[in-house]
Amino acid sequence: MKESMMKVVKVEVGEPPQVKEIQNELAALQAEVGGLIECIYLEDGCLAIINEEGKINGMEPNRRIENDIICGPFFLCGDTPDGEFTSLNEEQIQKYTQQFSDVPTFTGEEPELEPRMTFIGFDY
Questions:
Q1: Three-state SS string across 64-106, please?
Q2: Strand pairing of 5-11 and 74-79?
Q3: What are the φ and ψ backbone dihedral angles of 95, each rounded to 5 degrees?
Q4: The pTM is what?
Q5: 20 SS3 class
Q6: pLDDT digits 0-9 by tens, 45-85
Q7: 88 φ/ψ angles, rounded to the nearest 5 degrees
Q8: How far is residue 104's CA from residue 18's CA, in Å, rounded to a whole number?
């Protein structure tokens, strides 16, 4: 069953992470990231919900996640086996609050700031 409210870690540009309760509906999720949402699956089963067009729209660089730089605000939440967004537990909240506590400085020259797409071809 889908949670109507969920506890997330919100990461704004230039600020330390904040624990926040948000509505678990599309309009509210989009409002948190300032536009269309995109999910980045993390190795521990959690999700980073980012602005799909953050780089294209010229949003400021925020944090590094894996081999990319996320532009604009984002938040972290859990995921159910059915693909529903869910609250983070206390251990996950601690982990992500600590992981994103350092506010990085970007020069604007980082190659990861360039929008890019990956195309995968299939032979039939």
A1: EECCEEEECCEEEEEECCCCCEECCCHHHHHHHHHHCCCCCCC
A2: antiparallel
A3: -60, -50
A4: 0.89
A5: strand
A6: 899 999 999 999 999 999 999 889 999 999 999 999 888 99
A7: -80, 150
A8: 16
